[in-house]
Design brief:
Blueprint: H1 12-25, H2 33-38, H3 44-51, H4 57-73, H5 82-93, E1 100-101, H6 106-109, E2 126-127, H7 143-149, E3 157-160, H8 163-172, E4 175-179, E5 197-199, H9 205-216
Parallel strand pairs: 1-2, 3-4, 4-5
Helix pairs in contact: 1-4
């Protein structure tokens, strides 16, 4: 299982630019990068009132959706590096099932579910705020995925970039790999009790998963 933002693709910087563009269109002052980083990893609609206090979320939501569509069309958002796609292919060839579990809303992952998306033949499922009852860091964020697949926590590994990802996985009894590629967080930002391993870049996940598989045999 893999997180999306700053794990499979590097999105914080692009999201920061996108959200500030929407704020400018609304006539609001830009947020600082530090304010954005402070709530990065939280669901967008929950984080925005803190990123831009007093914002009219009813006005923000449709503007964000249209701006996001433009960023996607321009290749400025959710670009998955070729080496990360190659890593997914290695995992699949080794017999692994690859799924996404993200804090995004359903409309924020809709494009990833398109039949012509690069993930179409690589991902066997996507779980998000629209089809799960609980969000990270609640360990129950994995409930629907586990129930749907019939997998046990001991059969799973979750790769993510945030302390909340680690807490959710650890609480669910799932091995957690911290991906530090984005540079947004360091390993000492995580509670070591919930981190099974860490990687500097996403492709290193392939070897770590294989190592974990051997230790479980």
């Amino acid at each position: 299982m893999i997180d999306v933002d700053d794990t499979l693709c590097m999105t914080e910087a692009a999201s920061f630019a996108l959200e500030n563009e929407v704020l400018a269109a609304m006539g609001r002052p830009p947020m600082t990068r530090s304010r954005h980083l402070a709530s990065w990893g939280e669901p967008l609609l929950e984080a925005m009132p803190r990123r831009s206090p007093g914002i009219d979320m009813a006005a923000f939501a449709p503007l964000f959706a249209t701006t996001m569509d433009r960023y996607l069309e321009q290749g400025r958002l959710d670009v998955i590096p070729p080496e990360n796609l190659a890593a997914l292919d290695e995992l699949i060839l080794s017999g692994r099932r690859v799924m996404l579990l993200t804090s995004r809303e359903g409309h924020e992952v809709r494009h990833m579910l398109a039949p012509d998306h690069v993930l179409a033949d690589r991902i066997s499922g996507v779980w998000h705020r629209g089809n799960t009852r609980h969000g990270k860091p609640d360990p129950r964020a994995f409930d629907e995925l586990l129930a749907h697949t019939g997998l046990s926590p001991a059969q799973c590994v979750y790769v993510g970039d945030s302390p909340g990802d680690a807490v959710a996985a650890g609480g669910a009894g799932i091995a957690f790999i911290a991906c530090l590629q984005s540079g947004v967080r360091r390993l000492d930002d995580f509670d070591s009790r919930h981190v099974t391993a860490s990687v500097a870049v996403f492709p290193e996940v392939v070897a770590v998963v294989e190592d974990l598989s051997r230790t479980r045999r």
